[in-house]
Amino acid sequence: MEQEKIFESDTAIVTGGSRGIGWAVAGQLAARGARVLLVGRNVERLERRVHELNQKFPQQAVGFACDMADQPASSQQIVNFALKTIGKPTLLLNGAGGASVTHALDAPWTLWMDDFHVKFFGYLAMARAVLPIMREQRRGVIVNLVGIAGKDPNPALAIASAVNGALNGVMKVLADDVSADGVRIVNVNPGATQTDLLTAMAKVSAKESGKNIEEIIDQMRARSPLKRLPGPMDIARIVIFLMSSDADYVTGTSIDVDGGIHRGV
Ligand SMILES: NC(=O)c1ccc[n+]([C@@H]2O[C@H](COP(=O)([O-])OP(=O)(O)OC[C@H]3O[C@@H](n4cnc5c(N)ncnc54)[C@H](OP(=O)(O)O)[C@@H]3O)[C@@H](O)[C@H]2O)c1
């Protein structure tokens, strides 16, 4: 079905745009007319994804390969590339990252540092790189894929719980700083969502518990109040709504898309 081109005048950077939730968001943005810059590490996959989008939506997609662990250099390079190719960013999806399955005392210090560098500093550095441009245009929306563990800390996802909690705090204060300039910042908290990341996490849990991956995923599904696990599109639809003008009074908050698993209200 032909989508209404509600993002025709938009320029979007999607980190983690080559797989999972980010890829679903990139496709939806392009279908609605946005020019998109996808970011990921794997060059071949990125090129395939960019080609796929350009076949459907000619000349709307470009890719930039880099490791988001290298901050703030990577973020500045991404934004410079965007300015040269798709133009001044009006939308940012921060989505590059993962979630190590580990308890706080078991995780080596280097893993704590690595995960904070990629996701916490990666999201923060991207926000710091695009916000001056968005403020100058008096227009922009940043959506961050954070995660329900930030509100509902999970001992088996110790670092992700800390990273996501920290992202809730820093994005709130950033939203306060830029709201008067017409720029919105919203966090989205997926619960367990069926992507490569979930399979990788289930693999670790399966190894530790002696169960197989399907059993681990079945357990997650059984814990969900809705008795199903979402796919990337379930999350992407909410991101697209939050980026649209229909959500123009939503900022400085986080939206749970977790099927009701988190008990807080
Ligand atoms: N899936 C879930 O259950 C779930 C739940 C809560 C929160 N989240 C959060 O949502 C976000 C997206 O998750 P997902 O499930 O869509 O993950 P995914 O399917 O594993 O995709 C991750 C994307 O990020 C890119 N990426 C990962 N590390 C990177 C790095 N160091 N530098 C640059 N790009 C990198 C990947 O491409 P390359 O591998 O090519 O770099 C890929 O495009 C993550 O922040 C995750 O923590 C996910």
Summarize the structure in words:
With 265 residues, this protein is α/β, with parallel strands linked by helices. It has one domain: Rossmann fold (3-Layer(aba) Sandwich), CATH 3.40.50. Helices cover 48% and strands 15% of the residues. The chain has eight helices and seven strands. The protein has helices at 20-31, 43-56, 73-85, 109-137, 158-178, 196-209, 213-223, 232-243; strands at 11-15, 35-40, 61-65, 91-94, 140-145, 183-190, 253-257. Strands 3-2-1-4-5-6-7 form a seven-stranded parallel β-sheet, with helices on both faces. Strand 5, helix 5 and strand 6 (183-190) form a beta-alpha-beta unit. Helix 3 runs parallel beside helix 4. The longest helix has 29 residues, at 109-137. The chain is globular and about 50 Å long. The mean pLDDT is 97.
CATH class category? Alpha Beta
Tell me the number of helical segments per DSSP (H or I, 4 or more residues long). 8
Structural class of the secondary elements? Answer: alpha/beta
**Strand proportion:** 5-15%
Number of domains: 1
CATH superfamily: NAD(P)-binding Rossmann-like Domain
